[in-house]
Amino acid sequence: MPVSQESEPETEPEPTVYRTLFLSDVHLGTRGCQAELLLDFLKHNDAGTVYLVGDMIDGWQLKNRWYWPQAHNDVVQKLLRKVRKGTRMTYVPGNHDEFARGYIGAFFGGVEVADHAYHMTADKKRLLVVHGDQFDIVVKHARWLAFLGDWAYTFALWLNLWLNKSRRKLGFTYWSLSAWAKLKVKNAVNFIGAFEVALAEAARRRHADGVVCGHIHHAVIRDIDGITYVNIGDFVESCTAIAEHHDGRLEILHWQMTAEERRSAADAASEKNRTDARAAA
Ligand SMILES: [Mn+2]
């Protein structure tokens, strides 16, 4: 017997249904999180498979100060509701929600928690799905590591894991690569480039055709030496997600306005065009 806890009006628009949706860096539990826009996004967009690629909940912020408004709760409910309706959902934790890394392999409300995942696109491309913070040290020391070779790369990945574990045990906050990069503003572009190359390299080492990640809040789809590099962006500043169409084509979805705001903006624009056309006549 179907049980519906939420009753939604009959007039709900039909959502666009993609093959896959990727979301990351939503940062629920912070004031910066654009939960209302995300709710609107989830209302208008659906998929057979959804990946939540880390920093969905900001455990670091919540530990300092509890902030959990209704809209943030609604996002969680909306996602779980999709699962109940048959969406396959995988949650790949990031550094801000690393508490979830203690539950790798478990299912919560039908959502699988995984350290990383491989997604096969409709056109048979194998994509590594990972948040990206695992490569912070590799990114920071990319130049040295390239010089030192393979053992250094493996060591850096291990060091990254170990350092953050120790910092946590000692009660320090997470060392944030993005914060570090923002301090060195003039290096921001270099930093994004280094991150992209490090993640593409990670995909190559795992014999994947591409990588879908988050972490640096910078949505992009581009080719790096034959590897498809995809960054989902975030739902804090840029409000972006990645969609896979039914033919395997990947696209960045921008959702800085609610669908309603979008419609009235379009109406206003076409009204202005009509007025302009009359004035010109
Ligand atoms: Mn992150």
Task: Explain what you see.
39% of the residues lie in helices and 20% in strands. With 281 residues, the protein is α/β, with parallel strands linked by helices. It has a domain at 16-132 and 208-280: Purple Acid Phosphatase, chain A, domain 2 (4-Layer Sandwich), CATH 3.60.21. The strands form two sheets. It has a seven-stranded mixed β-sheet with strand order 4-5-3-2-1-11-12. A five-stranded mixed β-sheet has the order 6-7-8-10-9, covered by helices on one side. The mean pLDDT is 86. It binds manganese (II) ion (MN). Residues 54-55, 94-96, 131, 133, 215 line the site of manganese (II) ion.
Topology:
Elements: E1 16-23, H1 35-44, E2 45-52, H2 59-64, H3 70-84, E3 88-91, E4 107-108, E5 111-113, E6 117-120, E7 126-129, H4 136-140, H5 142-148, H6 150-169, H7 177-183, H8 188-205, E8 210-213, E9 220-224, E10 227-231, E11 240-244, E12 250-254, H9 259-280
Parallel strand pairs: 1-2, 2-3, 3-5, 7-8, 8-10
Antiparallel strand pairs: 1-11, 4-5, 6-7, 9-10, 11-12
Helix pairs in contact: 1-3
Bound molecules: manganese (II) ion.
Features:
single chain, 281 residues, alpha/beta, Purple Acid Phosphatase, chain A, domain 2, seven-stranded mixed β-sheet, five-stranded mixed β-sheet, 9 helices, globular, binds manganese (II) ion
Question: What's the mean pLDDT score?
Answer: 86
Question: Quick one: CATH superfamily of the domain at 16-132 and 208-280?
Answer: Metallo-dependent phosphatases
Largest sheet: 7 strands, mixed
CATH names the topology of the domain at 16-132 and 208-280 as Purple Acid Phosphatase, chain A, domain 2
Total DSSP E strands: 12
The helix/strand class is alpha/beta
Q: Which ions, cofactors or small ligands are bound in this entry?
A: manganese (II) ion
Q: Outline, from the CA principal axes?
A: globular
How far apart, in Å, are the first and last alpha carbons?
62 Å
Level-1 CATH class name of the domain at 16-132 and 208-280: Alpha Beta
Second-tier CATH architecture of the domain at 16-132 and 208-280: 4-Layer Sandwich
User: Could you tell me the strand content as a percent range?
Assistant: 15-25%
Order of helices and strands: EHEHHEEEEEHHHHHEEEEEH
Query: Helical amount among residues, as a percent range?
Result: 25-40%
Figure out the total of helices. Answer: 9
Rg: 20 Å
How would you write the strand order of the largest sheet? Answer: 4-5-3-2-1-11-12
Low-confidence stretches: none
